[in-house]
Amino acid sequence: MDLPRAEPAPEVLLRLFVTGNSQRSLRAVEGVQGMCKEFFGDAVWLEVVDVTEHPDEAEREKILATPTLIRQIPAPPRRLVGDMGEAERLIQLLGLKEFVRSERRNE
Questions:
Q1: Which of 17, 55, 62, 95 has the fewest CB atoms within 10 Å distance of its CB?
Q2: What's the whole-model pTM score?
Q3: Between 3.40.250.10, 3.40.50.450, 3.40.30.10, 3.50.50.60, what CATH number should domain 12-105 receive?
């Protein structure tokens, strides 16, 4: 009998809080997903939380405005609110430079 394997903990866990399918929310999701794919590959886990569907999560994380991006892992958490369009800026503000794939660092 095979036991279910626990997935390894992510090196980086990001949580993006958005409000429904607004243009702002869709741009934030597209920007953060694009950053993760281009710069991090599988090193980053991204969880998108719609506060209209999960208001309890928003309350627990004390989300006052959307979009809000939280770096949960590694600790301590860091938060960004607002425009998620500039990948390099997000990486710098979230303190994620060390997790960028090596081939992207050399560019």
A1: 62
A2: 0.86
A3: 3.40.30.10
